[in-house]
Design goal:
D-Maltodextrin-Binding Protein, domain 2; disordered C terminus; single chain; 330 residues; alpha/beta; five-stranded mixed beta sheet; disordered N terminus; 2 domains; 16% strand; 13 helices; 10 strands
Length: 330
């Protein structure tokens, strides 16, 4: 792809949490798919959602890959980080459904076995904490477990394996790493909750208004990265990319992660559409566990699909046909 000289090297500062949601970022940078669109990405990993919110709010970063519930929390002024004024965060693309599994120590056989246990979350009132509260609440032990704020998935995995906590929610491939270390997957959150919107691309509305072209090019590059990853011929290079950026992951786990995230109808959201049915679940959980009356009618406070729609309308089609329909997001 030819790039006009004036567009070369536009910098975007992007942060995310540790995990495979970043795979398209890593692959896109290595394959030059963002550079083709005139973008230079600065990628960083943050240890928790509080720091992510602070950096995004203060303009230290431009884009975050984060749970959509974090967007909702800070726009609604319910986030744990004390920001000086309401955040103008919004979600502009969907990445996955959270890929969450309740993972526990090997001596625990079912959710009821977590009675009296300590469970770790990123932050107590943002991210996926409400998913975990819902899972244990539905088992009737919500008031009999202790929740502690530990940080991102890598930190929670470490605490689980070391025995500091007895259970946590982990996404793929951290759940697979935990299983390889002898931990036990009790349940996939999707089987209990149904549709759920997990990781999204988020930015400030003020930034997006000034940088619409860069936003669209970022989305197009991310989309092209997913297409490259999904090509069977690229699987060995894609797996090598994941292992290079997650050095603790074995070849076997990386191969399983590839199959789960890129080899079927689940995993990454190929068209990057935000699942509005899944957003309704996110809002319902926050309403139930934080006493804030939210409904899908409020979704446009947190979502703007126009950047994604414009980016994909002008993006050349490449790679395999997208396997995940955007029908539910309509």
């Amino acid at each position: 792809m030819d790039v006009a000289p004036a567009r070369i090297g536009r910098r975007l500062r992007v942060v995310a949490f540790a995990g495979a949601s970043n795979w398209p970022l890593w692959a896109g940078v290595e394959q030059g798919l963002f550079r083709e669109r005139g973008l230079s990405l600065e990628l960083g990993i943050v240890p928790n959602s509080r720091l992510m919110a602070r950096k995004l709010h203060d303009g230290e970063i431009d884009i975050a890959l984060t749970a959509i519930d974090n967007v909702v929390a800070y726009v609604a002024r319910q986030g744990e980080e004390d920001l000086p004024h309401a955040a103008d965060f919004f979600a502009f693309m969907g990445v996955d459904d959270g890929l969450l599994s309740l993972t526990v120590r090997p001596d625990i056989d079912d959710i009821a076995g977590l009675r009296g246990a300590t469970l770790s979350v990123d932050a107590l009132t943002t991210g996926f904490a409400f998913v975990l509260r819902e899972l244990v609440g539905c088992a009737g032990i919500g008031a009999e477990v202790n929740f502690v704020s530990v940080g991102n998935g890598a930190e929670r995995l470490r605490g689980l394996v070391e025995g500091a906590q007895q259970g946590t929610l982990l996404n793929t491939p951290l759940d697979l790493i935990a299983e390889e270390a002898g931990m036990k997957r009790l349940v996939r959150a999707s089987t209990q909750l149904g549709a759920y919107q997990g990781i999204v691309g988020a930015a400030r509305r003020s930034f997006a208004k000034r940088n619409g072209e860069a936003m669209r090019d970022f989305i197009a590059g991310f989309h092209a990265s997913l297409a490259w990853l999904a090509e069977e011929a690229n699987a060995p290079a894609a797996i090598a990319c994941l292992r290079a950026h997650m050095p603790g992951i074995s070849a076997a786990v990386a191969a399983k992660a590839y199959c789960q995230l890129l080899g079927g109808p689940s995993g990454f959201t190929r068209d990057l559409a935000i699942n509005r049915v899944g957003v309704a679940t996110v809002l319902a959980l926050r309403s139930r566990h934080r006493g804030l009356a939210l409904s899908l009618a409020d979704a446009d406070l947190y979502i703007d699909d126009s950047f994604r729609a414009a980016a994909l309308a002008s993006a050349p089609r490449r790679g395999r046909t997208e396997q995940r329909s955007s029908a539910l997001s309509k």
